[in-house]
Amino acid sequence: MQYTMALDKMKALNLESSVTRSETDEVDGVPLPKKVCDRWDQIWNFRARPDDLLIATYAKAGTTWIQEIVDMIQHDGDTEKCKRATTYLRHPFIEWVLPGPFSSDKNAEVMPSPRTLKTHLPLQLVPPSFWEQKCKIIYVARNAKDNLVSYYHFYRMNKNMSEPGTWEEFLEKFKSGQVLWGSWYDHVKGWWEAKENHRILYLFYEDLKEDPQREIQKVLQFLEKDLEKEVLDKIIHHTSFEIMKDNPMANYTFEPPALMDHSISPFMRKGTVGDWKNHFTVAQNVKFDEDYRKKMAGTSLTFRMEL
Ligand code: A3P
Which of 52, 180, 226, 296 has the fewest CB atoms inside 10 Å of its own CB, making it the most exposed? Predict the structure, then answer.
């Protein structure tokens, strides 16, 4: 099977620790890895199919979590089927069209329908075929402060990202949208508005954490699936942070260590709401809130920063 082969290649791939951090460029003012910008035409012309399901998030908002939930739903709670390959091979990352065996476009092209795909793109950069085909989209948003903290640690451990700088520097870059995939504020607001006119299920990380059963029910309804209570319980268990942390098909430990160094910060780091309190100083928090109020003025979108 094609995925198994790709996994074997992945294991055999022993990249030197000399991997350098990615360069950044921009598409319409949105910072993206240069290698993504270099292939932008190809990404923009992605051919969506009407039965594609797109999972869209700002990076570190709980993408992998909702991917595992969706996969479990689609496979009626069969954990073995969900361990057929790593998250990124199960669900091609549409803008990650890098050459090589793990190229998402090659994966997506050969993948039988119905496909589940992933993107971190802000609304305005989503390839138009997704709108033309009226694809269903699940969006997960996470409160800005926890999202920022998670992103900072991800930058530290992942050489696909540029240098994060210090915490203070990264905090400022996040506020001004000078991080990869751009402004968190524009991202969450853009998708929030889009749900009025498109088939978008808009979920929140904090809600998933508070009551996974209630939120998974929403996903079931959106996907027009009905599952026995027993299967639902199994999905909740299999997609809990504790289980996913130890699942090599979901915790990104299959990435070559030279790219993702889990000893710096594990991909499955804390999985909580409110960890920002361990990072922000009182002064940083006051300034952040002040700026946040301005950037989020005029939207009906609200977040919980703690549970
Ligand atoms: P933290 O860094 O705060 O721990 P993404 O998949 O979008 O990259 O998001 C990663 C974040 O989601 C990480 O947050 C990770 O720990 C968290 N996460 C992943 N699976 C989770 C789960 N099952 N429950 C709660 N949080 C989860």
Answer: 226
